[in-house]
Amino acid sequence: MALTADFGPKDIRSQIQRTDIQGRHLTFIDDLSESELLNLFVTAEMLEPYWRSGIDLLRNRILCALFFQPSTRTRFSHETAMFRLGGNVLTESNPLISSSAAKNESLYDSIRVISQYADVLVLRHPDDERVLADIKLLGKDTVPIISGGYGDVTHPTQGLLDMYTAWRWLGGDFSSMTVMIATPDLSRARSGQSFALGLARMGATLHYSGTTGLRTPDVIRGKLDAMGANYTEHSDLTISQQEDLIADEKIDLLYLPGCSVKKGDPGRDDFMKKMQEYYFTLEGMQRIESRSGKTVGVMHSLPRNEGEFDFSIDASPYQLYFKQIGFSVPLRMSLIANIIGLG
Asked: What pLDDT is stored for residue 262 in this prediction?
């Protein structure tokens, strides 16, 4: 191994400077280069000892969480991450009722106002086109904005924590990973699509399994094609065919994006009706392992619903979805510290 100039004891501050994404917005996960992603993960691993006890890196800095859609994990983990970094949080989880958005304030004006108070904004919004247009119009007149989920197409911080979980579990070599993303509705699987973009950036092999008419959005396909991603999209497979595909392709991770459609939406009922051919069981995972010799990790973005997959997987060696939650805090500590910076 060659002796490099930076050889020496690990230092979290030097590591954050090395990542060099201070002041940047995060909209799609492929906004980040391969080296920036790896440096985020290295920073997160260095921060893991402090995800419960805390480390005073961002004293007197403020994160604003502005969520126009319901959230538990994304909002709480960003807020927890900021508190663990020694910073403070302003949160608005019902802006259409309790903020000036209820008085018809535009998103553009809201962001400009929040930028006078906070050092970083985590934003969740149902209209990705509106958000992207406003961010472009705002230019530099805003603090860094981290997407906590825009529309149906992008949820980069979920993708990052999923990547980090895979990086930690499979040893860090994305180019050797093969991942399957399985859902009846690939058109609204923003968590799975964000995971896929990040994996593609790092050279992993991707298999999509969805249904005819609900394919991967064109904006995501365009990004995958531009990266020269190694991906295949399968349609209308039975659950037995999907198990065969996982075994035959030596897939490492099975990712289930789940249903993001609210109760009462007709699309939710249709999604759940189609789940029969996407209902992975503990017995099915065991059959896959007996054929392929691999313990395939099952990931899910949560929340989950009855009928999406066999909850017996919870207590099995295949379960990664609750482990993902633990990794979300150090990963988001890393992201926030790197985007705000330590200056």
From this structure: 64
Which H, E and C letters describe the chain, residue by residue?
Answer: CCCCCCCCCCCHHHHHHHHCCCCCCECCHHHCCHHHHHHHHHHHHHHHHHCCCCCCCCCCCEEEEEECCCCCHHHHHHHHHHHHCCCEEEEECCHHHHCHHHHCCCHHHHHHHHCCCCCEEEEEECCHHHHHHHHHHHCCCCCCEEEEEECCCECHHHHHHHHHHHHHHHCCCHHHCEEEEECCCHHHCHHHHHHHHHHHHCCCEEEEEECCCCCCCHHHHHHHHHCCCEEEEEECCCHHHHHHHHHHCCCCEEEECCCCCCCCCHHHHHHHHHHHHHCCCHHHHHHHHHHHCCCCEEEECCCCCCCCCCHHHHHCCCECHHHHHHHHHHHHHHHHHHHHCCC
Same domain (yes/no): 183, 319: yes
CATH at residue 203:
3.40.50.1370
Number of domains, the chain: 2
292 and 197 in a common domain: yes
- Domain match, 38 and 91 both: yes
Q: What confidence category does residue 187 fall into, taking pLDDT thresholds of 50, 70 and 90?
A: very high
- Report pLDDT digits (tens) over 269-323: 777 777 889 999 999 999 999 999 999 999 999 999 888 999 999 999 999 999 9
* pTM exceeds cut of 0.90: yes
Same-domain check for residues 334 and 301: no
Domain holding 280, by residue range, is: 156-326
In the chain, what percentage of residues exceed pLDDT 90?
86
